[in-house]
Structure formats: C-alpha cells, structure tokens
Design goal:
Two copies of one chain form a homodimer. With 578 residues, chain A is an alpha/beta fold. Chain A has 17 helices and 30 strands. In chain A, the strands form six sheets. In chain A, strands 1, 2, 3, 4, 5, 14, 15, 16 and 17 form a nine-stranded mixed sheet that branches. An eight-stranded mixed sheet of chain A has the order 19-18-23-22-25-24-26-27, with helices on both faces. Chain A has a five-stranded parallel sheet with strand order 6-7-8-9-10, with helices on one face. In chain A, helix 3 crosses helix 4 and helix 5 runs parallel beside helix 7. The termini of chain A are far apart. In chain A, 60% of the residues are buried. At the A-B interface, helix 1, strand 2, strand 3, helix 7 and helix 8 of A face helix 1, strand 2, strand 3, helix 7 and helix 8 of B.
C-alpha cells in the first residue's frame, strides 16, 4: 500500500474526501459483536474506509435496507471436483455470495504436479473470486498407485512462497505425521520455514495420535463425522471446518456441537461441490440456510463463514465489514434464504441478481492439456487368465465411496477370462495408468454397478486420476479407454463400440474448459443415457461412483493401476479369492 | 525448530517416548471449548506435546487436582511505571501467573531513544517472563516539550525487525492518524512493510474519526472508560484491552459490556502497575479475581487473559494449553482467588508458592544511566518576575491526572517572585529540561498539593521525563533539583536544604536497579515522610501526582519545560492571568 493510498483511505474514512462508492441504507451484519447495525459503507479502492452515516460518494448504491454481510469464505474446497475451471467456478459461486475460497488443487497436482499448481494460480487471476490455494501435501496420495507427479518438500519450494498459497493442504497422511516420517517432517518444516500454515484431514484421529498431529502444527480438520469427534478436536485447539459437499453431508449433524463457547473455532466448507449441487442448492449460502434451519443465530452462522475462516487461515485483510479490510460484501435479501442480490469483491460490483458481471477470460490451458499420455494400450491389456472362477469383487455401497469386499463366482471362458452375465450384476473394472505410459493396468470386478451394455470410462479417478473403466467386455472397455485417450480425458459412455455420450475434460483430464451450466447439463444428460442405454443401477451415480473405486485409502476394497487393494490388510490382494 | 526437535515432540505426543516433564492430575482450563478437563500434560523442551492420560515422563509433577491454566498475558503494560527493571518486574509478577507481557517502553524511549529500547530488549532476556515489546509510536509524545529522543520511522527501522518487537505501540497521536499526518503515515507504513502490528490508544475516539483510526490498521485500544465506547470500538473490529492499573480502574465498569458474542475481542491489561499494587492486589490474577467477582465465568475470564491476547497480538505459539504450543502453564488453587501455586514458562518450573525460582541476573545498565544531563542549573532558573499577582494555576483533582485550570492571587516580592503562604495551599512548580542541557525551565503554580515545607523533585515526569519539582521556595526547589542531578535521577524530598528521603532511579532516571520489594518499601516510606515532614495533602499521592503534572495531552492545564500548557486552547499560556 502506497502512502498516497493510505492517506486517501484515511481521508475518506474521516469524511474529508468522497468515497469511490457508498453503499447506503444497509443492515450491516457485524460479526464482531453479533449484531445488526443500520448504516452506510464507504469504500475507496478495494477497501472499506468507513461505516456510518453521511459519507459522500462518487457513486452511490442504495441497498434499500438489505443486509450487508462480509463475503463468504469456503474454508476448504477442491475446485477440480466441480469438473470446471477456476474461472467458471467463480462465475457460478460468486453470485451466491462467495468471495473467497480456500482451495486445495490436490487433484490437478496429482496429474500435472507444479505445472498444475501454476495453471491454477494463473487461472485464479482471471476471476473476481479470491482463491487462496493450498500446496497439496500428499502427492501422490498413496504409495499404492501411480500418479502423474510426486511433490516432495524440495519440489514444493519453487512456488511455496507465492502469496496466494497459504501453506500445506489437508495433510491426509495423518499416519505419516503421527509416525513422524522423514518426508512428512520435511514438508512440515518447509511450511514452518516459510511461516505458512498446514491444514489437516484426519478422520477419527483421537487421543495421543491427535496430540501428535496437532503438535506438528496442523490447524484444522474437515473430516469430523460426529459431535464427539468435533469436540475432541476443538479441545485440542483445532479449527473445525464443518463440511457440506455434494458427497459428504456433515453440517446438520455437527451443528449440534456448535456452542457459544466454541463457535469461534468453527468454519464452514464444501470440500467437493459439483455444479449441479451449486445450481440446485447453492454454495456457502446453502450452508448458511441449513445453519439457520437448524436453529443457529444467523449472525453466528455468517461468522463461521467469514471472520472465523479469515482468522483460522490468517487472512487478516478480510472476514468482516470493518474499516481497512477488503470490500468483499454481499447484500442479502434476508438471513433465512441468504439470496445474494449484489456481491462486491474488492469494492467492485461483481454479481447482481444471481448473475456474474465481469467478462470471463479463460486462462491458457495449453500446459495442462494433453495429460492422457497412453500410447501402448490395446484390448489385450484388459484380458484375464484366471485360475479359478471364485473371485474377490468390489461391491458398491450407497454413497459410493466406501465399498464392501465380497467374493463371487463368475463365468470364465476357455482362456480364463470373464464372461459377462447380465443376470449377475458383476462387471469387469480396470484402472489404466495414464500419466507415464507405463502400461500398468489393474483389473478387478465391480458388483452393484448394474451395467448391462457397453462400458463407462473416466479419467477422473481419485486420487491419482488414472483412467477407470467398467464394462461388459474387453472390446467395449478398450474402445472406451481409447476414446478417452483421443479426447485427452473426460467421461465417455460406449455402447456397441460407439460413443453414445461424452464430456471432454481437457484440463488435466479432470476439468472441462466449458461453463458450469454446460458441464452440469452435459453431465445430467450423460447420467440419463447411462441409466437408459447402459442399464446402470438407478441408485448409483454412474460417474462419481466410478471415480472413487480407485481410492485405496477408503475401506474396504479398491482398484488401482497396480491391482486390487484391500483396506483391512492395507495391501494388494489377488483377484482370485482363496 | 530442527527436524530432530520436531520428531522428538511428535514422538512424545504419540506416546513413543517419555516426556521431559509430565504434570499429572490437572484440571485443565480449556479456553477453546470453555470447559475444564481432567488430564495430564506432557511437556518436551519448551513445548506442550500432549494432553491426556498415561504419558510417561522423565520427571513427574503431581498437580493434585489443581487447575492448570495457560500462562496469563498482560496485553499492555509500561514496565517503567513500576519503577523497576524488567528483571525485577518478572520476579514479582511471574509468581502470580503472568508468563507474557506486552510492554510498551514508551518512557525509556522518551529518555534514551533506541538505546533505551536495546536495554529493554536485553534485560528481557534476563527474566523467565516473556516480554514482547512495542516500538513506541510517539516519541516525543507531544511537540510541546523536550524529550530525550525523537523516534521517526527512519530511526525505528534499525531494530524494528527484532522478533521481540510486535510492532508499533499505542498510537497516542490519534489526531495525527485521523489527519493522516506525513510522519504518522511513515510509521504506519513501516509497520506494514515489516508485517507488524499497530496497537492503539484513542480515548473517546468515535464515528468517522474512529473509522479513520481503524482503517490505518490499528488493532486495539485500552482507553475505554464506558461500555458504550467499548461497544463502538468492538463493532469497528478493534480489540478492547480492558485496563485495571494502579491509576486507572476500568475493569468492573467494562465487564458490564462483555458478552458471549464479543468476548473474543476482549483482553485484559494493566497499563501502569506499581509494585505496591502488585504486592497488595496482584497482577493479572487480580484482574481475573475481579472478573469472577463481577460474575464472569472463570474460563471466559482466563480466555481474555490468554487466548484472546495471543490472537490479537498474533502470538500463535501461546495462549492455550494445546499440543505444540509453549508450555507456559499456571497451576491454580481455585478459579476464584487465582493463587498460582506453580508457574511454568517454556516448560521450566519458574515459580512456586509465590516465589520466583531462577537466579536474578541484572542486565548491564551502563548505557542507560547518567541520563540526567543538566550542567547549567542554578537557583536563578527558578526565579520569576511577574507583572501581576493574579496567576493561572494548576489545581490538582482527585486521581491526579486530570487537573483544573484556576486563577489565584498570590503574594509577590519586590522582584515579582512568588512568596509562599502556608495558608493558601499554592506552591511553585517547575519543569527542568534534563536531556540535552538546554537550560529550558517551565515555571508555574500548583494548587492543592498541600506542601508546607521544603520541596519534592522527580525525574519521572510524563511523557518526556524532565525533572519536575514543587516546593515552597527557590532554594529548596533548587537543592532538590541539584540532588536529583547528582543521584542521576530518581525521587527526592528536601527540607531545609537537606535530603530527608530519596529513591534513586539510575536506569534512565525512571527505573530503579533495586528489587520490587525494596522499591515498594522505599516508596512507601517516602510517601510517609512527604506527608509527615512536608505536609503534603493526604488525599494526594505525593510522587505520582507530580509525575502527571507535566503531561500536556491531558486536560485542563499542565506544565512542560517550555511553559504552562492549556489543553482547551491546546497552546501555551502565560502564568499571569488576564
């Protein structure tokens, strides 16, 4: 801040000069004292100069008695899970009142490494939305699969000092922290060296292990499922990022544990939020609506989504309507539905009546496209030669993230390969390494997916984002994989070796360069076709379910490009059941 | 923190290694959730590793069910006002549970400039007490007097980066901030450049002026007198440092304004606290006792004195009993009287049963002694030649800081100089510049002091700390001044041109190198003699009252080395009344 800017700000605040903008007649949501205050807000440049009455402004906007709240902060989100780019996500969530997101680009980093991070940092500059990034702490997420990149402490150093990187993202390798693993310590010390933060991810961590995790300097956790877990983590000084996403719904449950005493330690986040959820329910405004439905005081709810998040992540330039802070302000019709009539970011009106106002300029994606680097793939890669027809299979459970390990008897051909039986609801599933053309293909069986024809392939497959494909025979599956390779990644439905629906995801094979509206529409259409044409089980989300079948750190049985992984023994197992 | 230290900390936390110390059987005061929790605290090095049960320790201390609270933080104090050195202050307040003070060495900086700061920083290293310093923002405090030093932004830069300097201390020149004065802006920008904080001091600042002050980045204020003032400042995002000192008592009143909603914005501080007050009432423990007396939940009270202060001043390594934080812990008998049975700082037991345990090693004072640099002073400097016997006089009011401007008719001799009349209760008062031997002497009259014999002189005189002397005639006064010059500063009572009591303050003429106990005893004796031998009014504190008569920024009339200052016109006035 230059001296002239500071002087101008003070001059406006003191009433000696006209503000650039005055938002008049607001009911200001004051998160410091928990009250609503009538007043005007004077803005100069990107900052709030003053709150009060009788400020002169070069421009006046009359809020007509609407509530003025600080812009909402999503304390933890993966942009990639929306399948859209940062610019396009900004376009759809800014009009809902979200002005800052704290994003962990864990998915793209697993595909493209630092190049992916650089793309995300660049793209963030093309949206009015403020995006504060984490440096993903666990790339690859596990040693049981092949990711596109490896980020050790020494790799991170190049860009770790970037002002838009708050520190290390959710430290999923909680076991590594608790065990004080060498490489984990290096990352933690890197964060300390740069005076940066470390966010957490530690489902069910408790007791001494929780102490160990916290004393490493990890600030928060968004994985709490129960009030009890939340209470223990708060008592150890962690911030709790209460999550309400497309897949995980913890808000209503955890709100039971929010008290006047621990409110300041509670934040709101979405973690994963798909465009459809955003269009149907909203973003942080939907969190706030749920909070109020559950009986929380609306100012307390807003405090969780603003001041508390700013404090936890040391974003001391925002989080409240206060002189000197960023003019990130949302005008709300009420404190029940939280409809954002106008949204200001850095003093600019950026959304009105649900519409995003700035022109969308897309960031160059050339360095993160072409990420599906598979040359030597053929139908032979999918062939099996099983000694027995009794196999271990992945049984899909409702919710689609946790699975059940089952054994099944299948039909085999003369070569020992799988013959699909439409009456049995078991199909073949494969994970094809796609980053380094290693030729690795993991094979297995999937029960409960319901597919009766063709194949489904996706280059989104947590957390390494190899290609995952499920289908009724090798030819359909191979065709789907090849189609994906040609598309540079995305989602594809195949029937009779023809593409019947697809959604290209050229950005690292995991994000579209299209708008949220278009992606949402395409994805909905793709779902419909998957049900109608491929016969996929209506209780199963055809794409998202598949993308989690490759995540080995979630129980009970998963498939990576290296094979079938058993969570209980935490090791690979044979397809053939004992 | 080295990798080995981090690993060791995690190993202890996880229970794989023995802690250095385990404090067993505590009732842990948890400031995150507002609860009391039974448990043990495992400590390694200077940090808390874990909280729980069954931690093995190389050393075990059984708390026998005592309350374990985080060490108390005084959010704003002037060490110099205690008249003792940092080491000696540590000795008397650490056993009361104070483990960190945020100190503004404004007084010594006014005398010795950066050399004074360096002495304070060095002395802080000789006490177990953690001292975080402010860089005094207003040296000199006003342009109406001569201080020993001038600290502009460019002067501060040399040591501003010191890790024990949090930023700028109480920005008393609120008018300068609101007016965006050039030199004030330079200081504010210096703090921003160093990513440091700015504390405030802004009595009665309100409305747009408050907006201007806050948008300059000023974090807190300790000058609130009323709940209304406090509420307005909180609503503008300021932290409120609720003060309870030797002179100012705001705690009971302001506690009426502390609510569940704004608690997190409230801190406790003492500002000025003399040894006698500390011995009689305590330090932060006394604040906590008052909070509980006034009906505040004791954990909330402790939160104000710990977590809230740590957050406000961004001391993220302390403020709670939490894994990874400094092991600054107080074992309390109860949450009513807050008697500290044991005090740990950085994992070391430093006080027990009210006794400070470390050996006291005094810091070298050679660079801050010899600060009374007056050579050309004689009785002639005190002579008056008044054209009229109707004069303006400073009338002492109860409390002794604010004065009343009165006019009085006095007796004059042939030369136009004052003749003391014991029946009138008006004496002569002079402020003698003592830093640069400029020969400046301000002269005036003091009413209500009650002195009947001799003179009283002090080299503590807010805020420039020239010599202030009051007495019944020029000879007694001159003798007192000369005695002070010989003593290198301090306090002296003179009768019949003999010293009848004195307290040397060799450190910058404002602090003793003796213990708190001794200073307190000497000061008490000095007071007794002042009443008994000099006849000073029993309702007046003989020394402290005098030290505030030179503070021109407090209404209504004061005396500096440049003359009589009228607060209302904010300018100098003649001794002779119109």
């Amino acid at each position: 801040m230059s001296k002239a800017e500071l002087k101008n700000l003070i001059d406006v605040a003191a009433g000696r000069k006209s503000a650039d903008l005055v938002i008049k007649n607001c009911k200001i949501v004051n998160v410091f004292c928990g009250e609503i205050e009538d007043g005007d807000i004077a803005i100069v440049g990107n900052k709030i100069a003053g709150i009060g009455k009788d400020y002169a402004g070069k421009k006046i906007i009359d809020a007509q008695g609407k509530f003025a709240a600080p812009g909402f902060i999503d304390a933890h989100i993966h942009i990639e899970s929306s399948y859209i780019s940062p610019e396009q996500l900004g376009k759809i969530i800014v009009p809902l009142g979200t002005t800052t997101i704290i994003a962990d680009p864990h998915e793209i980093a697993n595909v493209c490494g630092l190049e992916g991070m650089k793309y995300m940092l660049g793209a963030a500059k093309k949206t009015a939305l403020n995006i504060i990034y984490a440096m993903p702490s666990c790339v690859p997420a596990t040693p049981f699969e092949d990711a596109g990149a490896i980020l050790e402490a020494e790799d991170m150093e190049e860009i770790f000092g970037d002002e838009n990187i708050f520190g290390l993202g959710e430290f999923m390798n909680a076991v590594g922290v608790v065990n004080a693993d060498e490489k984990v310590l290096n990352k933690i010390l890197l964060a300390k060296k740069f005076h940066k933060l470390i966010d957490g991810h530690a489902p069910n961590l408790s007791g001494k292990n929780l102490n160990a995790y916290v004393c490493a300097g990890i600030l928060g956790d968004h994985e709490c499922m129960t009030v009890e877990e939340m209470q223990e983590k708060i008592s150890r000084g962690m911030y709790i990022l209460i999550r309400e996403g497309s897949a995980c719904h913890n808000l209503r449950e955890l709100l039971k544990g929010v008290t006047e005493k621990n409110l300041r330690r509670c934040l709101l986040c979405s973690d994963d939020r798909q465009p459809k959820t955003i269009f149907d329910a909203g973003h942080m405004n939907s969190h706030l609506k749920i909070c109020v439905e559950e009986g929380l005081n609306p100012v307390d709810a807003i405090q969780m989504a603003t001041l508390n998040a700013a404090e936890a992540f040391k974003l001391f330039d925002r989080g409240a309507i206060k002189p000197g802070l960023r003019a990130d302000i949302v005008l709300l019709n009420d404190l029940k539905n939280f409809f954002a009539e106008k949204v200001f970011i850095g003093g600019e009106l950026v959304a009105e009546d649900g519409n995003y106002l700035p022109k969308i300029i897309s960031h160059d994606i050339s360095k993160v496209r072409g990420s599906v680097r598979v040359k030597n793939f053929s139908v032979d890669s999918l062939k099996m030669n099983l000694p027995s027809n009794k196999v271990n299979a992945i049984k899909i459970l409702p919710g689609g993230v946790v699975t059940k390990k089952i054994t099944a008897e299948i039909e085999l051909d003369a070569a020992g390969d799988f013959i699909f039986n439409p009456a049995q609801d078991i199909c073949k599933v494969a994970v094809v390494e796609r980053h380094h053309d290693t030729g690795k293909v993991g094979l297995g069986f999937l029960a409960g997916y319901g597919i009766k024809f063709g194949a489904v392939a996706v280059s989104v497959a947590h957390d390494s984002h190899n290609i995952i494909v499920a289908g009724v025979n090798n030819f359909e599956m191979a065709f789907a994989v090849k189609s994906l390779i040609e598309m540079e990644g995305g989602m594809v439905l195949v029937k009779d070796e023809k593409i019947i629906s697809s959604l290209p995801l050229p950005i690292a094979g995991i994000m579209s360069d299209d708008s949220g509206e278009q992606v949402s529409k395409n994805l909905e259409r793709l779902h419909e076709i998957a049900y109608a044409e491929l016969g996929i089980n209506k209780n199963v989300e055809p794409i998202m379910t598949l993308t989690f079948m490759s995540l080995p750190v979630i129980p009970e049985i998963k498939l990576t490009d290296r094979g079938l992984f058993d969570y209980e023994s935490f090791n690979f197992i044979s397809i053939t059941a004992e």
